[in-house]
Amino acid sequence: MISVEQALAKILSYVDVLEEEQKPILDSIGQVLAEDIYSAIDIPPLDNSAMDGYAVRSEDTRGASRQSPRFLRVIDTVMAGSISKHSVGPGTAIRIMTGAPIPAGADSVVRFEDTDEAQRKGASDEIAVLCEVKAGLDIRRAGEDIARGSRVLRKGVVIRPSEVGVLASLGRSKVKVIRRPTVAILVTGGELVDINQPLPVGKIYDSNTYGVAALIQRYGGIPKILGVALDNEDSLVAKLHQGRDADMLVTTGGVSMGDYDVVKDVLAKEGEVVFWKVRMKPGRPLAFGRIKGVSKAGVARDIIHLGLPGNPVSVMITFEIFARPAILKMMGKKNLAKPTVEAVIEEPIKNKSGYCIFARAVVEKRDGQYFARLTGPQGSGILTSMTLANGLVVVPEDKLGVDKGDTVQVMMLDWTEER
Ligand code: AMP
Ligand code: MG
Predict the structure, then answer these.
(1) Whose alpha carbon is nearest atom 14 of ligand 1?
(2) Is the dihedral of CA 406, 407, 413, 416 positive or negative?
(3) Per-10-residue mean pLDDT, the chain, length 419
(4) Which of 8, 38, 140, 366 yields a CA-CA distance of 20 to 30 A from 187?
């Protein structure tokens, strides 16, 4: 049996970064930029005013003060988006709004607050300047944010709202990014019923399809739901074939001791099994391999297969640990690790298994320090424990447990601050 680290390294060694695609900027959030972005324009395009005020020649304000104002003749008003036809000569000023281009002849802007604008109640053909201004004051220079020809965004960054804003400021409506993976989900088990059906006695609703689809979406993939396969070869093969054009296949169930034979036989026929079983709890019977698939263009290729256990909690935890980094890698992301904090554990956890334990926990920050307590019973069928948890306490396989008060590593599912 291999360790969690070995299993993850093995899986990632089979994962390739996907191809590029062209996307409208607003649809590219969370994707990785696949081109360097250069600007064809200066931003701002022209010197413009940072304030509502008067464009002046700074030398005309020399010696001005509240006691000794300098009076200037107002020859025009210029709004953002228009250009004054006039130029500022000696003894004159142009009323100017924030963002409006600086008129010829002016070298600075006096804010309304430093004039008697407020007393004049509206447009006047004269203004009193109440302080001296230096040349360049309150002028935003052409190209001060982005100079024409410069590289604005680097290939490899993740698109966030700020990148979308910058792309829009350059006039870009589309951008080249790494495409999102399609991840097919196939759940197995004769006991499972889809949520849109009535629930017969003895059956349970299939929660894994939806839990996994939600995780796929959360981490940037596109879920492709294949539905429920029965625990027999024909049913499994038929469903598998419907997922052949996905980039990755996630199955749940059918990998534990008694069941595994069917899934294993099918996978061996349809591809190869790379490993089965990992030294972890929950999630030990995890299987990983490849199956024969086809690209959207119809070209034969292998797709990776993660055979997660059936228990809904094991599914979510093994997804976080193995499927999430695989999806992120396909999307071209570099930082694949889940954020981790150090926390003081508030109750002991025993570990006689020799496996790495992931215990569902509630992490809270008190007096600048993180504390973690367990969510309660840790059975892997208790899915509500995942709704209580915001982190997973990691007890390494070589540790016999942790005592109350020990410092532990907690893999954060969410941040406490967000709850
Ligand atoms: P298995 O690994 O197939 O033996 O499943 C382990 C446990 O998880 C059993 O109690 C199953 O009923 C349950 N289980 C398996 N698949 C699902 C599913 N898709 N939704 C909810 N529970 C499931
Ligand atoms: Mg089953």
Answers:
(1) 310
(2) positive
(3) 98 98 98 98 97 98 97 98 98 98 98 95 89 97 97 98 98 98 96 97 98 98 96 89 95 82 79 94 94 92 94 97 98 96 97 96 95 93 93 97 98 73
(4) 8
Q: Parallel, antiparallel, or unpaired: how do β-strands 182-188 and 222-229 relate?
A: parallel
Q: How far is the CA of 101 from the centre of ligand 1 (A)?
A: 67
Query: Which among 409, 400, 399 is positioned nearest to 372, based on CA atoms?
Result: 409
Kindly report whether the peptide bond that precedes residue 24 is cis, defined as omega within 30 degrees of 0.
no
CB 290 within 8 Å of CB 249: no
311 lines ligand 1 (CB under 6 A): yes
Which residue has the least CA distance to atom 3 on ligand 1?
A: 253
From the list 138, 175, 132, the residue with the least C-alpha distance to 157 is 175
Q: Please give the full DSSP string across 117-164, using - where no structure is assigned.
A: HHHH-S--SEEEE-S---TTTTEEPTTSSB-TT-EEE-TTPBP-HHHH
235: enclosing H helix or E strand: helix 233-242
C-beta atoms surrounding 410 within 10 Å: 24
User: Residue 259 Cα, ligand 2 centroid: separation in angstroms?
Assistant: 7
**Measured in angstroms, how far is the CA atom of residue 190 from the centroid of ligand 2?**
7
Query: Ligand 1 within 6 A of 208 CB?
Result: yes
Structure-token pair, residue 364: 């809270």
Cβ atoms of 154 and 163 closer than 8 Å: no
What does DSSP say about strands 48-49 and 139-140: parallel, antiparallel, or unpaired? antiparallel
Task: For the beta carbon of residue 70, count every other beta carbon within 10 angstroms.
Answer: 21
CB-based contacts of 281, cutoff 8 Å, min separation 6: 353, 355, 356, 357, 358
